[in-house]
Structures are given as C-alpha cells and as structure tokens.
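As noted in the main text, all predictions were made from sequence alone. Below is one such record, for GTP-binding protein 2.
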Amino acid sequence: MVMVSPEMDPTICWMFEAEIVLLFHAKTFHKGFQVTVHIGNVRQTATVEAVCGKEELRTGEKAVVVFKFLKHPEYLKVGAKLLFREGVTKGIGHVTKLQPIAQYRPSQSEDDEA
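Prediction:
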C-alpha cells in the first residue's frame, strides 16, 4: 500500500529507463542480467531489458538501460537517483523515463504465472 498525494502526479510502472554508470562488474553487463535496484524507499529485483546503443557494458562505461521489476510495479519519479547491485556488480544513475503501467502489456507467459 502506498499513500501518494495527487499533486505529486504519481506514476506506477513495471518498466523504466535510467542513465547509469557501471562502477564495477567482473565481466560484461548485458540484457537479461538481474540486479537489486534501490530507488528511494524502493528495493526490488529488476531485469535489464535493454542496453540502449550497445550490446554490453564494462566497468566505468555509461549507458541508458531499460529495467523491468520482477515482483510488482512501483511508484517512481523521473530524476530519482538509483543504485543497483548484485554480488560484486555495482552501479549508480538516475531515472530518465517511466513506462506507465497503462502502456505495459505483459506477455502471455507472465499472465499465466499470475
């Protein structure tokens, strides 16, 4: 449950875009990688759906990445700072674009799981 003021223009989403910097990763960071994302009071596992303009990232590189939450949608704001981690992998960035839940169409297999 979330209490949100209507003046905040709340947006709930499954997927969001973020500009990130990969602080450390042992090999390459690519589509399909799962990380724990921290955005304000939100902490949830998300999958990398796309790395815009590149196939993969290495330590120190910047990119725009599309993340998708695994468990449930979250309320986010554009500009919110984020941190993500998984084992020794760490990165930081900020939310640049939200895909509101009304625009998200889950695949048939996701409907079957629910």
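The helical segments are 108-113. The chain is about 5% helix and 55% strand. These features were considered when defining construct boundaries for the mutagenesis experiments described in Section 2.9.
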